[in-house]
Structure formats: structure tokens, C-alpha cells
Design a protein that fits this description.
This protein is an alpha/beta fold. The chain is 44% helix and 15% strand. The protein is built from 27 helices and 21 strands.
Length: 700
């Protein structure tokens, strides 16, 4: 549907109603719809509402809408629930929502009172979206909603909880565990996982020499207590929360520096001074771009682009995809029957024009795929002749599964793992909610591909390959952020997303050697329990093997209508690829030539002895201003060092007295029984009592 046609359709119900709420699935669509609606009428009759507008602007818009000063509001799911915006006459949804539950939640904003009826309309944006809208509308009318599975035992959030509880008071280890398990999400939390998270926060993995693994809490293993370290409250304040930080630029008014909203860094990179764009139904002209802010002034440009905000892919569950697949199975043999059109209009509540468009789509797909639609019990393998002259002997193949992204994604990863194991090379796979696209050698059939994935061995295949994917890396970055392992340094300075990604990659590389790092465990839990539907995948593969799902191959000269989305996704991905070679490995250049270029003596840095000595004293915390602040901080330092030579220990005590005025005798009294002196050969050492077994084991 074109922008003009869409806004024309939207304006009719807006004109009839006193108040109308319009939902769109992305912030960019919200901005675009609001702009197009306002261009057709005098003044600003519609405002936008989404998370990238400042809270102050959102509050003003909500208040004006509630008072009846605005005829319509265009929003993302920021207005699905929890905000009072008054009585609504009707809800309009531009593009089908991602789930039946979300559709019902949005519809429920209209007619919210007891005994009232909720009224809403779906406005699909293209023919394939119309198929989803048809199925969703029937599910809504029948109350067929996805089952909900609450998240339980999230270890990244647990890290935040433990830090926040120990900031204000010292806890007994057992009492803290009991207090955590009193909450429903952690009622079944194993003690072993609780201990792992606490030990991570206490610096157990700091030997990896990654600054982000520095300890945030201190555990006294003699008295069995835990408390937050100094500075942990600041880390919690700056980096707490569960929404991932994507490094957005702040959009500010150039004259007052008032905050207007947020912009994606990729959008900002493509802008220059003088460019115009719309946000919050106002056109802005860029005046200046800093490392944190984009400074703008209002502009009178006749037309300007809407910003974009990149986000991670969100896969649909099998529930909705299964309903779509069953609808296709029912419609497959009835496309020429007038009764099907009547059913679409009467039972699915389609406009007669929409019913005709949907039937034309299904007929076109059926004709292009050789006379049968892919559906719940029919998997279609489409082999596309490459019009651009791809690699010889390689075919582009689409598997039309209609299993949902949460099933197709683990299948694509398992296929990559199995292919690499069997053939020793990577398999190009891309998926969406309806299908998978692969590039495979000529002659490979669907049965061959699906046969590579044993339903009982999926976990093994995922274990081999999942951690190498960008999907796992993104989940690790978000989990590490929630666990306070990628802390921000200041509210005034944004953390660019590219820098967060690099920090997360280094952190993940450093902790992969550990067998029990809790955040890696949490990422696996979130993938296997929340992001993937493995039981459903196993069921589909079993049915394909037993014949419950028939598999057929067809060759086409161009992609069929149902392949359009994944083909576009592949093209978009290829357009933004960098120049990384497809096959890694070093070249055959002679080492001597490189040595002549790089390893010249004159390029080596010169370090003075005084600088080296200053660095030594700083890392040993004996330099002025670096000494532990009290006995507890000193004990934490001894635990981290494991052993400290006696000469350095005496220097350290003197540094504490010099910096903080705490006499050595007072420190000895506070640390009695917790710090011990040992003699190994001719060396006198100091270590913490809890570290004695480790030290004795090291010296045999």
C-alpha cells in the first residue's frame, strides 16, 4: 500500500472518531505515518509517541491527547499499556502486530471501560502482511492467544539484584540466598548458580585481566558475609536496568540544550550539518554534531526524511506461524471456490478488496511453485536459478517451512554446524519467520539437508556452532550489560554501540576458557529456553522423516512471492557487508619481508626507568593516592594478590598510613585471623587465611 493510499484510508476513521490511537511496529513507521497524515490537513492534527522521544515531550503529548486537543496519536508499543490517555473510540494498526497477544493488547486500549466494546482495524502494508492480518484477525475473534512463559532464574539480572541488596547493608550468605529465593523468578534457583554469580561479582574471574571483571562485592569467607565494595553503588546507578544500551545520540535544541529525543548512531553517521529530518512531527535542521549530541533547530523544509533506529531481529514463535500454515493448508484446494472469498470477508472480517488481493497472492504463489502451496504438512524446497551468474555448481535454495523464526533460527544454526562437520566448509544460511535461504551445491535436495539434522542431536550441533554466531554475541553483550560487566562511565558521555560490541567481544573471548562463567551459562539459558523452540523443531523434523510432512522440490527462474522477504533480507545483508575475506587464513608472504617493515629497532618505544618504577608502585598500590582505604579494602587486595612478599607488605602498610592515617597496629588488630604470614624456602610471604589451601597446593 502506498503512503498516499494508506493515509487516505487512515483519515476516514480519524475523521469519524473523537479520539483515535494508531499503532505501528517501528519508530520509523510511526514518524512517517504521522508526517504523512499531517501533510494532508491544516495544522498538526496527529503527533507521534515512542521511546526515542524525550519523556518530557511524551508527557506533553499524552496530556494533550487526553484533553482532546489531538484527534489522533501514532505510537509504537510504548502505549500498549500502563499509561492513561483517556477514552478511545478506535484503534488502528498499521502493519500486523508481531503476535496475537500484542494485537489484543492494542485493541484493548479502545472501549476500555466495563461493558464497552473494543473497536479496531488492521491496515496491512503489503500482500504478504495481509496473510498475517487475515490469520491474526481470526485468532483475535476466537480468543486463540499464545501461551505465556515467564522468564525464570535469569543470572544477569540476579547480579544486579545482589549488588543492589549489598550496597546498603552487609548480608549473611545463607540469608541473602533465602531472601532472593523468596521472589517467584528465583524460587527454584540452585545454590550453585547463586554462588557462581556472587563469586563472579567478588572477582573470581579477574585473573582474565579484563577490567570489566573487577570485583564489585567483597565476600568474607571466614565470617560468611558479603557486602558491596566502594563504588559499586555508582556502577549500579549508571548501568542498572534491563533495557540494552544501544549508544544513541542525544538530540538537543541548539539554543537551550533541551533534550528532544534520541537518534541511532548509524543514522547520525550518515548526516551532516544542514541536513533536515522529522522527529515528533517537527522538521529539524542539523546545526552541529558532537561525540554525544546532535544539536538542531526547527526548520521549514517542505519534506524531510524520518530517522531510522537499528534493532536486533525479533523472531516470531511457532504459534502464529503454525496458524498461518494451517490457513494455507485449508486454502490450498479452495482458491477457485467463491465460498473461500465469502469466508475471508465474513469470518476473517476482510474488506472485499483485501480478500481479492489475498486470493491473488495465493494463486500467484501456487502457480509459481508448481501447483501446491507450502503449508503445515507440506514443506516446499524452491531452487532459484541465479540471474546474476553466481558461483558455478552452486544453487540458491529456499525452504518454505512456515515454522516461525524461533524454530527456523536454531534449524539454520544446526544446519551450519552439521554441514561444516561433514564438508569442512561454511554453509550460507539466512532465515526469517517463513523460510530459510541457503546456497548449496547443485543436486542437494531438501531431504539431504533435513537429514543432516538428527532431532535427538540438535543440542550437540548447537553446542558446536551457536557461540560463533552474531546472535549469541549480541545476547552475550546484552546479558553482560545487565550483569554490570560493561558499565558506563558517565551519564554525560554515551557509550557508542560499536565500542560496546568490541568490549563484549573481548570479554567473551577472555571468559570462554572458564567452565562455569555464569553469564555464558545465562546466555545459553536464554537461547535454549526463550529464543528457541527446540521441542517444536524436533517435532517438525520427526514429521518430515516419518512422512507426516511431505517434502517437494521445484525449480523457478525467479523467487516466488513467499520468498520475497528473505531475498530482500539477503540483499540488504550483502549490501552492508564489509571486505572481510570469505575464507580466513594468512597469506604466503615471507616473514623476513614483514620483519623488515614492522620490527625495526627504531620503532620500539623507549621507557625510562623512573616511569617503569612509578608504574610498578601504582599496580602494587603503594604509590601516593593508590593505597587501600581501610582494613576491609586491604583484605580484598591481599585476596586478589594471593600472596605478597613481606617487604612489599610493609611498604603497603606504610602507604595506607600515609594516604589515610590508619596506623599499622590498628590494621593488624582488624585483620587478626584473616591475614597470615607464611615462610616458603627463604621467602617470607603474607596471604589471606582463605587462600592458604591454594598457596600450600602451589608449593607442594
Amino acid at each position: 500500500m502506498s503512503g498516499t493510499a494508506l493515509t487516505g484510508e487512515l483519515r476516514r476513521p480519524i475523521g469519524r472518531n473523537r479520539s483515535t490511537l494508531i499503532f505501528a511496529n517501528s519508530r520509523r513507521k510511526v514518524e512517517k505515518v504521522a508526517r504523512l497524515l499531517n501533510e494532508l490537513g491544516p495544522g498538526k492534527m496527529v503527533y507521534s509517541h515512542h521511546g526515542s522521544l524525550s519523556r518530557e515531550l511524551r508527557n506533553v503529548v499524552e496530556d494533550r491527547f487526553k484533553k482532546g486537543e489531538l484527534s489522533a496519536l501514532v505510537a509504537t508499543n510504548s502505549l500498549e499499556l500502563g499509561i492513561d490517555i483517556g477514552d478511545l473510540d478506535e484503534v488502528l494498526m498499521v502493519q500486523t502486530p508481531p503476535s496475537v497477544a500484542s494485537t489484543l493488547q492494542r485493541l484493548g486500549r479502545a472501549g476500555h471501560g466495563v461493558g464497552q466494546t473494543s473497536r479496531g482495524r488492521l491496515f496491512p502494508l503489503h500482500a504478504r502482511d495481509l496473510l498475517d492480518a487475515t490469520v491474526v484477525s481470526r485468532c483475535v475473534l476466537e480468543g486463540d492467544i499464545e501461551p505465556m512463559q515467564p522468564v525464570g532464574g535469569a543470572l544477569d539480572v540476579l547480579a544486579q539484584v545482589l549488588v543492589s541488596m549489598t550496597v546498603s547493608e552487609t548480608w549473611d550468605l545463607d540469608e541473602l540466598y533465602d531472601a532472593v529465593r523468596a521472589s517467584v523468578p528465583y524460587r527454584d534457583l540452585p545454590r550453585s548458580q547463586y554462588d557462581l554469580v556472587l563469586e563472579m561479582l567478588a572477582g573470581r574471574y579477574s585473573a582474565a585481566r579484563v577490567r570489566d571483571l573487577r570485583p564489585l562485592v567483597s565476600i568474607d569467607k571466614v565470617e560468611r558475609t558479603v557486602r558491596a565494595r566502594p563504588g559499586a553503588d555508582k556502577v549500579l546507578y549508571l548501568s542498572g536496568g534491563t533495557i540494552p544500551d544501544r549508544g544513541y545520540f542525544h538530540l538537543r535544541a541548539a539554543d537551550s540544550m533541551a533534550r528532544i529525543g534520541e537518534l541511532d548512531e548509524e543514522f547520525v553517521w550518515e548526516r551532516s550539518v544542514g541536513d533536515t529530518f522529522t522527529l515528533g512531527v517537527q522538521t529539524w535542521r542539523v546545526q552541529r554534531i558532537t561525540h554525544n549530541d546532535v544539536l538542531v533547530k526547527p526548520a521549514r523544509a517542505a519534506s524531510a526524511m524520518a530517522p531510522f533506529w537499528r534493532a536486533e531481529d525479533h523472531d516470531h514463535g511457532n504459534f502464529l506461524s503454525d496458524r498461518v500454515a494451517r490457513f494455507l493448508e485449508d486454502a490450498d484446494g479452495r482458491l477457485e471456490e467463491p465460498a473461500l472469498r465469502d469466508e475471508l470477508i465474513q469470518q476473517h472480517k476482510l474488506h472485499f478488496t483485501a480478500a481479492d488481493v489475498l486470493l491473488e497472492l495465493l494463486k500467484a504463489q501456487k502457480a509459481a511453485s508448481g501447483g501446491t502451496l507450502p503449508h503445515r504438512h507440506h514443506l516446499l524446497m524452491e531452487r532459484i536459478s541465479d540471474p546474476h551468474g553466481g558461483r558455478d555448481g552452486v544453487s540458491q535454495v529456499v525452504l518454505h517451512t512456515f515454522w516461525g523464526g524461533r524454530v527456523n533460527r536454531p534449524l539454520s544454526i544446526a544446519l551450519q554446524s552439521a554441514w561444516t562437520e561433514r564438508h569442512g566448509e561454511q554453509l550460507e544460511v539466512m532465515h526469517d519467520n517463513d523460510c530459510l535461504m541457503l546456497r548449496v551445491p547443485d543436486g542437494v535436495e531438501a531431504d539431504d539437508l533435513l537429514g543432516m539434522v538428527d532431532p535427538d542431536g540438535i543440542e550437540v550441533l548447537l553446542r558446536r556452532h551457536l557461540e560463533r554466531t552474531g546472535f549469541f554475541g549480541a545476547r552475550f553483550r546484552e546479558a553482560a550489560g545487565r550483569a554490570l560487566l560493561l558499565p558506563r562511565h558517565s551519564f554525560r558521555q554515551r557509550m557508542p554501540l560499536w565500542l560496546s560490541r568490541q568490549r563484549a567481544k573481548k570479554l567473551m573471548e577472555a571468559v570462554q576458557k572458564y567452565e562455569d562463567f555464569p553469564i555464558l551459562l545465562e546466555v545459553w539459558r536464554s537461547c535454549l529456553q526463550n529464543a528457541f523452540e527446540l521441542p517444536r523443531l524436533k517435532q517438525m523434523l520427526d514429521e518430515a522423516r516419518s512422512g507426516g510432512i511431505t517434502v517437494r522440490t521445484v525449480t523457478t527462474s525467479s523467487p516466488t512471492p513467499f520468498s520475497a522477504n528473505v531475498v530482500w533480507k539477503q540483499t540488504n545483508d550483502l549490501m552492508y557487508q564489509d571486505d572481510t575475506p570469505e575464507k580466513g587464513g594468512a597469506s604466503g608472504l615471507k616473514p623476513e619481508l614483514l620483519r623488515e617493515l614492522v620490527f625495526s629497532a627504531q620503532l620500539r618505544p623507549r621507557i625510562s626507568p623512573a616511569l617503569a618504577e612509578r608504574f610498578r608502585r601504582k599496580v602494587q598500590r603503594t604509590y601516593p593516592g593508590y593505597a587501600p582505604r581501610d582494613a576491609t579494602d586491604l583484605l580484598d587486595w591481599v585476596v586478589e594478590r594471593v600472596v605478597i612478599p613481606a617487604d612489599e607488605w610493609r611498604e603497603l602498610l606504610g602507604a595506607v598510613e600515609r594516604d589515610h592515617g590508619v596506623p599499622a597496629e590498628e590494621l593488624f588488630a582488624e585483620l587478626a585471623g584473616k591475614v597470615l604470614r607464611l615462610r616458603a624456602s627463604d621467602a617470607e610471604l603474607v596471604c589471606a587465611a582463605e587462600s592458604v589451601p591454594r598457596v600450600l597446593a602451589a608449593f607442594g
